[in-house]
Amino acid sequence: MRVYCFLELDEAGVADASIRALAFARELADSLVSGAGTRVAAVLFGEPPQENLAPYGVTDIIAVAGIDGYAPQAWARALAGLLNGAVPGGMVPDGSAPGGAGAGEPAGVVAAATDRGNEVLAHLGAITGLPMAANCVAASPAVDGGYALVRQRWAGLLLEEALVDGPVALLTVATDVVPARTAGAAPEVSAEARVVSASAPTAGTSAPAVAGSGCPAPVVHRISPSAEAADVVVRAVETLSGAGGASLATARVVVGGGRGVGSAEGFGPLEELAALLGGVVGVSRVVTSEGWRPHSMQVGQTGTKITPDLYLACGISGAIQHIAGCSGARHLIAINKDPSAPMMTRADYAVIGDLHEIVPALVAVLRQRSG
Fold this sequence. Notes:
There is one protein chain. By secondary structure, the protein is of the alpha/beta class. The protein has two domains: 2-237, Rossmann fold; 251-369, Rossmann fold (3-Layer(aba) Sandwich), CATH 3.40.50. It is 25% helix and 24% strand. It is globular and about 60 Å long.
C-alpha cells in the first residue's frame, strides 16, 4: 500500500509544516495491516527539493510540472489521478510511473493543515467523493474499516474522536502535533520505517544509498499534467518567498504585535526585527479590528495557529483566543508594560517595559552583530 504526502515548498526547500506532515504520514503507513510493505510517496508541485527526504521514511518523490502558479483545483486533479492508480490524462512519466508496478493501493493522502493543504485536500475530496478530515492529531485503521481519528476542534481547545468511513483517508495534520525539526536534523523515525526505506526500491529503478543515512535515496518520478482550462481559472502566481512555507502557520520565528504597538506605523520596528531574525510578523485580533494589519496576519483562535521555535509577543495582553493560537510555540518571550498581563504569566521569558524602547534596542544589537 502507499500513503501520499502533499508537500509545500518555500525559499528554503520543503516547508517545516510539510516535514511534520511527513512524520505523521510515516506513522499512518506503519499502522496499516500491510506493515513494512507500506510506502510513503511525497508529492510536490515544482522541482524536487535538494534536501534528503529518505530519513523521513520517504521512498518516492513525485514532482508534478506544467501547472504554473498555485492552482488548487488542478493540483487536486493531479492527486486524484494518482489515487486512481494510473497516470492522469496527459501525464508522461520520467522513469517508472508512480501508479505503475509496485506502487500498491493508495491508503491515504496527508498534508499539513495550512491554508494551502486544507484547500487542496478539500478539492480532492470534492473530486473523488472521499471524506476529508482536517487538523488531525492521530489516525489509524478502524476495526470495521475506514480510519479512526483524533482531531483538534476550536483551535485545539478540545479533541474530537471521529471515524472516517472511506477506503482512502484524506487528512490534514495539525501543525503542532509533530515537534519542529532541529536545524539540519531529521525527526526520529521508527526502526520499522528505516527498514522499509532500505528494502523497498521501486521496481525497475535503482535507488542509491544516501551517504550517512543508511537509507536509499527516494526515487524521483517527474510527471507533467495537461490541466483543463476550468481547473486553472483560480490560480495564484507567486514566488516561493510568498508561498505557503513563508506563512504564519509554518514560520520558525514570529514577532507578534498587539494594541501596545499603538498604530499601523508602529509596526515598522517589529517588521525589521522579524526580518533580522528570519521570521514573519503576526498580530492580535485588536490590531486587525483597528485596521492596522490584515486578518491574514492574525494569530489566534479565529486567525492562524502558529508553532514557531520562537514567538516574541510585543504589547499583547494575551486574551484566551490569542493564547489558543500561540500555545504551540516552543519558546515564548513577552514584552509588556503590565507585569500581570496573561501573556507575561505564560511566557518563558518576560520583559517588563516599553516595547517602543526595547524593540529598537534589539534591532540595534542584531544589526551590530550581523555587521
